[in-house]
Amino acid sequence: MQQDCPSAMRRCTSMFTRIKCKAVALWKNLRGQKQKRKRYAGGRDRRGHILNRRPLRDGPLHIEARKQIGHWECDTVIGASHKGAVVTMVERKSGYAVITKVSNKTSKLVSSAIVDKLKPIAARVKILNYDNVKEFAGHGLIDQELNSTAYFARPFASLSVEAMRTLTTCCANTFQRSKPCRLSVMKK
Q1: Cross-strand partners of 91
Q2: DSSP 55
Q3: Segment 129-178, tens digit of pLDDT
């Protein structure tokens, strides 16, 4: 006995065949009724790129030996609810650390904070290593002001610069993440 009602598979097949034959826009039959648009940039990041970025693998090989003073690593620690940030700079050989607070993690504020803190010791700043984050996009200004050279860590390898791991962990544990970032000087 043959059924009057066709199976679900047959109904779907015949519906798509009719749509295909009649060249009807399928999106009109969808619940949202909005045509899906093609993203022209594919899966790439569309928020801008760090211009004139030098990869760390192109840097001098003697940096890894830590025999010379003047090679710095920079990073940011973001405050709770993305309110404020702390910029940390560590000299790789001596372990000397410079920490400063910025109200936002914009490229302009981070760059000016790095220049302000490292300008008095500019003779001891030769190379600055950064993570691949947008707040370090002003590295050209920093290089010009401090007469240094900037290198960036490998993409998607956050904190690949070793000296920063300990300091960043220490900062994250010291500054309470549940409260906005407050930087104060401890008195003895």
Answers
A1: 72
A2: B
A3: 998 888 999 999 999 999 999 999 877 665 455 555 666 666 666 655 55
For the chain, the domain total comes to: 1
Contacts of 119 (CB under 8 A, 6+ apart): 145, 146
| Interval 63-97: pLDDT, tens | 777 888 999 989 888 887 878 888 999 898 888 88
**Distance, CA of 120 to CA of 51 (rounded, Å):** 27
Q: Helical H runs in the chain?
A: 8-22, 107-118, 139-146, 163-174
Q: Is residue 184 part of a domain?
A: no
Tell me whether residue 24 is in a domain.
no
Range of the domain at 100: 56-174
pTM: 0.65
The identity of residue 122, as a single letter, is A
CB 69 within 8 A of CB 124: yes
What is the Cα 15 distance to its own chain's centre? 47
Is residue 3 in some structural domain? no
Q: List Cα–Cα distances, 185 to 13, 68, 99, 120, 143, in angstroms.
A: 72, 30, 11, 19, 29
